[in-house]
Amino acid sequence: MERDTIILTRKVQIFIDCDDKDQRSAYYQQLFDWRDMVFRGANIVMTHHYVQEQIKDLIYLKDEVKVKLADFKKDPDGIFTSSKLNTTYRILNLYFKGQLPSRIISTMNMTLNRVYNSERLAYWKGDKSLRNYKKDIPIPFGGDLVKLGNDEKRRDFKFTLFKIPFRTYLGKDRSDKKVLLQRALVGQIKICTSSIQIIKGKLFLLLALELPKQVHILKEHIIAEASLSIEHPITVIIEKDNFQIGSKEEFLYRRMAIQAARHRAQKAAAFNKGGHGRTKKLKSLDHFQEKERRYIDSRLHMYSRRLIDICVKSGAGTLLLVNQNNKEEVAKGDVFLLRNWSYYGLIEKIKYKADMAGVNVIME
Q1: Main-chain phi, psi angles of 119, to 5 degrees
Q2: What confidence tens digit (pLDDT) does each residue in 173-226 have?
Q3: What's the CA gap between 215 and 317, in Å, rounded?
Q4: Helix runs in the chain, H state only
Q5: For the chain, what is the mean pLDDT?
Q6: What domains lie within the chain, and their CATH numbers?
Q7: How many Å separate Cα 294 from the centre of its chain?
Q8: Gyration radius of the chain over CA positions
Q9: What percent of the chain has pLDDT over 70?
């Protein structure tokens, strides 16, 4: 049965709402310690899941070892002393009980189990390697723990999580973050399993919200045929109407201009004054790399939004990406296309926005 809701995730910068310098430092240290534990625990859990799946295929073990991955109390062939989900929970408790809040442990275990189950077929086929989590992994927690409140000036929001006070920073918010937070505050939308991420010392709340899908009058027999190319990012045909979204000059040339600027900065970095470390010398390179990433992300969001708006306006309930699989195979053998045309990112954004609008996406 198709769900009538969708999960949106919004990245909101947050600060620790504490004026005491020593106490604030202690809160920060606590978050860093928890992040390290989550990082270690995530890799341990994924390793255990993988080993459990492979036990049945280890042909060099005794025959009696090749049995079911189930609780032996419920299944005579089972080799576990508890349910499969509980095995990794017990492992996490063994390592981190008393150091990591139990709600973080249980949420992390559920999330990792769901991720592994969604990818296990790819592991079995050898199409994908086992996930390896890095130290910037977010700290997960249940959405019911977030109790939002307005600050004194009603400009931002405050909440307390694991006895640590936080305050959001929305700045000049041009998106829908403030509206969504206000709706979550009054209970109009539900907060789902969320997380806190630490990036270069800054704190970000990855807030997951469950929203109802937008209701549009769409007809499945009306098909929008979209073609993705480097000349025109998106060309879409709906019955007798033809639309072109974006252009080569707008997307590709601007991207190559940023790359050229980065290349010039890279050459000049050899003559930068020493004594301040590698990070200081390469700061300009990081600036241009981040600038290119932001530009591409902004363009892809705009292109995908325009495509879905055209589908909704025309009443097209089906979106067909024409000849897309062949184009991706060609792009793999073309270094220039592989570097400069973001097929995968654009398709992901199209699918995401189409799902929100109720448009069915088919790849040809």
Answers
A1: -115, -5
A2: 777 888 888 889 988 889 999 999 999 889 999 999 988 877 778 888 888 888
A3: 12
A4: 21-54, 84-96, 102-125, 177-185, 248, 254-268, 278-281, 283-314, 324-332, 335-340, 343-357
A5: 83
A6: 5-25+138-212 (2.40.280), 32-125 (no CATH), 219-363 (3.30.420)
A7: 16
A8: 25
A9: 87
